Amino acid sequence: MKNTGILLALLFVALVGCKSESQLFNGKDLEGWQVYGTEQWYVEEGLLVAQSGPDAEYGYLATEENYKNFELELEFLQEADGNSGVFFRSDIEGTKISGWQVEVAPPDLHTGGVYESYGRGWLVKPEDSKEDVLNYGDWNKMKIRVEGDKVQTWLNGEEMINFSDEKIGDANGKIALQIHDGGGIKVFWRNIKIKNLK
Known about the structure:
Elements: H1 2-18, E1 21-23, E2 33-36, E3 40-44, E4 47-51, E5 59-66, E6 70-80, E7 84-93, E8 96-104, E9 114-117, E10 121-124, E11 140-147, E12 150-155, E13 158-164, H2 166-170, E14 174-179, E15 185-196
Antiparallel strand pairs: 1-15, 2-5, 3-4, 4-15, 5-14, 6-11, 6-15, 7-8, 7-14, 8-9, 9-10, 11-12, 12-13
Protein backbone atom coordinates (compact mmCIF):
# COMPACT_ATOMS: atom_id res chain seq x y z
CA MET A 1 0.00 0.00 0.00
CA LYS A 2 2.86 2.33 0.86
CA ASN A 3 4.53 1.60 -2.47
CA THR A 4 1.28 2.37 -4.30
CA GLY A 5 1.13 5.79 -2.64
CA ILE A 6 4.70 6.56 -3.64
CA LEU A 7 4.01 5.52 -7.24
CA LEU A 8 0.91 7.74 -7.39
CA ALA A 9 2.87 10.67 -6.00
CA LEU A 10 5.62 10.19 -8.57
CA LEU A 11 3.05 9.93 -11.36
CA PHE A 12 1.42 13.16 -10.23
CA VAL A 13 4.79 14.97 -10.21
CA ALA A 14 5.58 13.63 -13.67
CA LEU A 15 2.24 14.78 -15.06
CA VAL A 16 2.59 18.23 -13.54
CA GLY A 17 6.13 18.47 -14.91
CA CYS A 18 4.93 17.61 -18.41
CA LYS A 19 2.39 20.42 -18.36
CA SER A 20 4.27 23.12 -16.48
CA GLU A 21 3.42 26.66 -17.52
CA SER A 22 5.99 29.40 -17.89
CA GLN A 23 6.11 33.04 -18.97
CA LEU A 24 7.82 33.64 -22.31
CA PHE A 25 7.81 37.42 -21.82
CA ASN A 26 8.96 38.77 -18.45
CA GLY A 27 7.47 42.25 -18.86
CA LYS A 28 10.90 43.92 -18.47
CA ASP A 29 13.15 43.08 -21.40
CA LEU A 30 13.68 40.67 -24.32
CA GLU A 31 15.44 37.97 -22.30
CA GLY A 32 14.91 34.57 -23.94
CA TRP A 33 14.15 36.13 -27.35
CA GLN A 34 16.22 37.01 -30.41
CA VAL A 35 15.55 39.81 -32.92
CA TYR A 36 15.73 39.07 -36.65
CA GLY A 37 15.79 42.01 -39.05
CA THR A 38 15.83 45.77 -38.54
CA GLU A 39 12.27 46.33 -37.33
CA GLN A 40 11.71 47.55 -33.77
CA TRP A 41 11.03 45.36 -30.74
CA TYR A 42 11.06 46.96 -27.28
CA VAL A 43 9.37 46.95 -23.88
CA GLU A 44 7.28 49.91 -22.74
CA GLU A 45 5.27 50.05 -19.50
CA GLY A 46 5.36 46.26 -19.19
CA LEU A 47 4.18 45.67 -22.76
CA LEU A 48 6.11 44.12 -25.62
CA VAL A 49 5.91 46.48 -28.60
CA ALA A 50 6.39 45.49 -32.25
CA GLN A 51 6.81 48.46 -34.58
CA SER A 52 7.88 48.98 -38.18
CA GLY A 53 11.37 50.41 -38.57
CA PRO A 54 12.81 52.66 -41.28
CA ASP A 55 13.39 49.74 -43.66
CA ALA A 56 9.70 48.71 -43.52
CA GLU A 57 10.68 45.06 -44.06
CA TYR A 58 9.66 41.80 -42.42
CA GLY A 59 10.90 41.43 -38.85
CA TYR A 60 10.74 38.65 -36.26
CA LEU A 61 11.20 38.20 -32.55
CA ALA A 62 11.82 34.51 -31.91
CA THR A 63 12.31 32.36 -28.85
CA GLU A 64 15.82 31.08 -28.29
CA GLU A 65 14.38 27.64 -27.52
CA ASN A 66 12.40 25.26 -29.70
CA TYR A 67 8.88 24.17 -28.76
CA LYS A 68 7.16 21.18 -30.36
CA ASN A 69 4.05 20.24 -28.35
CA PHE A 70 2.61 23.16 -26.45
CA GLU A 71 -0.30 25.39 -25.56
CA LEU A 72 0.52 29.08 -26.01
CA GLU A 73 -1.60 31.92 -24.65
CA LEU A 74 -1.07 35.61 -25.30
CA GLU A 75 -2.86 38.92 -25.66
CA PHE A 76 -2.40 41.45 -28.45
CA LEU A 77 -3.63 44.92 -29.36
CA GLN A 78 -3.25 46.26 -32.89
CA GLU A 79 -2.59 49.88 -33.80
CA ALA A 80 -2.08 51.33 -37.27
CA ASP A 81 -2.11 48.50 -39.85
CA GLY A 82 -1.66 45.82 -37.18
CA ASN A 83 -0.58 43.09 -39.60
CA SER A 84 1.39 40.49 -37.64
CA GLY A 85 1.38 36.84 -36.68
CA VAL A 86 2.59 34.10 -34.36
CA PHE A 87 4.86 31.48 -35.95
CA PHE A 88 5.38 28.00 -34.52
CA ARG A 89 7.80 25.14 -35.21
CA SER A 90 9.78 27.60 -37.31
CA ASP A 91 13.38 28.21 -38.38
CA ILE A 92 14.75 31.65 -39.33
CA GLU A 93 17.72 32.72 -41.43
CA GLY A 94 18.04 36.50 -41.63
CA THR A 95 14.44 37.51 -42.25
CA LYS A 96 13.45 34.39 -44.18
CA ILE A 97 11.29 32.16 -42.01
CA SER A 98 10.14 28.61 -42.64
CA GLY A 99 7.19 27.25 -40.74
CA TRP A 100 3.61 28.14 -39.93
CA GLN A 101 1.98 31.38 -38.95
CA VAL A 102 -1.19 31.89 -36.94
CA GLU A 103 -2.43 35.08 -38.53
CA VAL A 104 -2.86 38.33 -36.57
CA ALA A 105 -4.29 40.83 -39.03
CA PRO A 106 -6.79 43.67 -39.55
CA PRO A 107 -10.51 42.83 -39.87
CA ASP A 108 -11.59 40.28 -42.50
CA LEU A 109 -8.01 39.09 -43.10
CA HIS A 110 -8.33 35.72 -41.32
CA THR A 111 -6.92 36.26 -37.81
CA GLY A 112 -6.57 32.81 -36.24
CA GLY A 113 -6.01 31.03 -39.56
CA VAL A 114 -2.79 29.20 -40.41
CA TYR A 115 -0.46 30.17 -43.26
CA GLU A 116 2.67 28.31 -44.40
CA SER A 117 5.46 30.74 -45.37
CA TYR A 118 7.60 29.89 -48.40
CA GLY A 119 5.44 26.81 -48.92
CA ARG A 120 1.80 26.00 -49.51
CA GLY A 121 0.35 29.36 -48.46
CA TRP A 122 -2.97 29.30 -46.63
CA LEU A 123 -3.66 25.90 -45.07
CA VAL A 124 -6.87 26.85 -43.29
CA LYS A 125 -8.84 30.04 -42.74
CA PRO A 126 -11.54 30.67 -40.13
CA GLU A 127 -15.13 30.56 -41.36
CA ASP A 128 -16.40 33.91 -42.63
CA SER A 129 -18.86 34.07 -39.73
CA LYS A 130 -15.92 34.18 -37.29
CA GLU A 131 -14.18 37.21 -38.80
CA ASP A 132 -15.99 39.55 -36.39
CA VAL A 133 -14.54 37.78 -33.31
CA LEU A 134 -11.50 40.11 -33.59
CA ASN A 135 -11.68 43.22 -31.38
CA TYR A 136 -9.65 45.50 -33.64
CA GLY A 137 -8.09 48.39 -31.71
CA ASP A 138 -8.67 46.64 -28.37
CA TRP A 139 -7.06 43.76 -26.51
CA ASN A 140 -7.59 40.24 -27.86
CA LYS A 141 -6.75 36.92 -26.24
CA MET A 142 -5.36 34.16 -28.44
CA LYS A 143 -4.67 30.52 -27.60
CA ILE A 144 -2.68 28.20 -29.86
CA ARG A 145 -2.44 24.48 -29.21
CA VAL A 146 -0.03 22.34 -31.24
CA GLU A 147 0.27 18.64 -30.45
CA GLY A 148 1.63 16.10 -32.88
CA ASP A 149 0.09 16.93 -36.25
CA LYS A 150 -2.93 18.73 -34.78
CA VAL A 151 -3.31 22.53 -34.59
CA GLN A 152 -6.10 24.45 -32.85
CA THR A 153 -6.50 28.19 -32.36
CA TRP A 154 -8.92 30.24 -30.30
CA LEU A 155 -9.59 33.98 -30.38
CA ASN A 156 -11.37 35.57 -27.44
CA GLY A 157 -12.65 32.15 -26.39
CA GLU A 158 -13.98 31.19 -29.85
CA GLU A 159 -12.37 28.25 -31.63
CA MET A 160 -11.15 29.57 -34.97
CA ILE A 161 -9.58 26.51 -36.63
CA ASN A 162 -8.97 22.84 -35.85
CA PHE A 163 -7.04 20.69 -38.33
CA SER A 164 -4.25 18.15 -38.76
CA ASP A 165 -1.28 18.24 -41.12
CA GLU A 166 1.45 15.62 -41.57
CA LYS A 167 4.16 18.15 -42.47
CA ILE A 168 3.49 20.13 -39.29
CA GLY A 169 3.58 16.90 -37.31
CA ASP A 170 7.13 16.18 -38.49
CA ALA A 171 8.48 19.64 -37.65
CA ASN A 172 10.05 21.31 -34.63
CA GLY A 173 11.29 24.86 -34.10
CA LYS A 174 10.90 28.28 -32.57
CA ILE A 175 7.93 30.44 -31.71
CA ALA A 176 8.22 33.84 -33.38
CA LEU A 177 6.22 37.06 -33.48
CA GLN A 178 6.13 38.86 -36.82
CA ILE A 179 6.07 42.39 -38.18
CA HIS A 180 4.75 42.36 -41.76
CA ASP A 181 6.56 44.36 -44.40
CA GLY A 182 5.19 47.61 -45.82
CA GLY A 183 5.65 49.87 -42.78
CA GLY A 184 3.13 51.62 -40.53
CA ILE A 185 2.60 48.60 -38.25
CA LYS A 186 2.38 48.66 -34.46
CA VAL A 187 1.23 45.80 -32.25
CA PHE A 188 1.33 45.46 -28.45
CA TRP A 189 1.71 42.07 -26.73
CA ARG A 190 1.35 40.94 -23.11
CA ASN A 191 0.79 37.87 -20.92
CA ILE A 192 2.72 35.54 -23.24
CA LYS A 193 2.84 32.16 -21.54
CA ILE A 194 3.43 28.60 -22.67
CA LYS A 195 2.60 25.16 -21.37
CA ASN A 196 4.65 22.21 -22.61
CA LEU A 197 2.38 19.27 -23.32
CA LYS A 198 5.00 16.49 -23.61
